[in-house]
Design a protein that fits this description.
The structure is a single chain. Helix content is 61%, strand content 0%. It has nine helices and no strands. The N and C termini lie far apart (56 Å). The protein has helices spanning 3-9, 16-25, 31-47, 55-68, 76-79, 96-100, 105-115, 120-127, 131-146. The chain is elongated, with a radius of gyration of 21 Å. The longest helix is centred in the N-terminal third of the chain and has 17 residues, at 31-47. Helix 2 (16-25) packs parallel to helix 4 (55-68) and helix 8 packs across helix 9 (131-146). It is mainly α and 150 residues long. It has two domains: 3-68; 76-146, Arc Repressor Mutant, subunit A (Orthogonal Bundle), CATH 1.10.10.
């Protein structure tokens, strides 16, 4: 079965809802994410073989993968950050060393790298972990800074 046969049997209108649902599941619906999902749909039309299973299952996996590998935006929590605990500050400057002191050394180092402009992928490569794990480590560190009592 070729691309044109797959397109006739599986028009985008039938799967747009699934793609939107997966976009919301993997970071919220945006036009960019929906476009990534539609590109995955087109790739599926080219590579789908009916003998290997249902098109919907194949599409689901392909769209999820396309949405998972998209670079993460800056977490919205950081844009509206107000520390819960007020560390001692001199003037208006926040002592970053005092803020990061309670964190494990690894988390402190990762936060410094990330705040200095390193991407999740840069940090993942340096730490020998996946990009998703680097994101998780940074999020745990941010959570600890914002909520030290947890």
């Amino acid at each position: 079965m070729g691309y044109t046969d797959n397109l006739k049997n599986h028009p985008l209108e039938n799967y747009a809802g699934l793609i939107k649902r997966l976009c919301r599941r993997w970071g919220g619906y945006t036009e960019d994410r929906f476009q990534d999902g539609c590109l995955a749909y087109v790739r599926c039309l080219h590579t789908y073989e009916p003998s290997r299973g249902a098109f919907t299952s194949y599409l689901w996996a392909a769209v999820e993968h396309a949405l998972m590998v998209r670079p993460d935006p800056i977490p919205y929590q950081l844009l509206e950050y107000e520390p819960i605990a007020s560390p001692d500050v001199s003037g208006d400057a926040l002592d970053i060393d005092q803020l990061l002191a309670p964190l494990p050394k690894r988390w402190s180092r990762l936060l410094r790298e990330w705040a200095g402009g390193a991407t999740y992928q840069d940090i993942a490569d340096a730490e020998g972990v996946s990009r998703q794990r680097a994101f998780q480590l940074i999020q745990m560190a941010i959570d600890r800074v914002q909520h030290p009592q947890r």
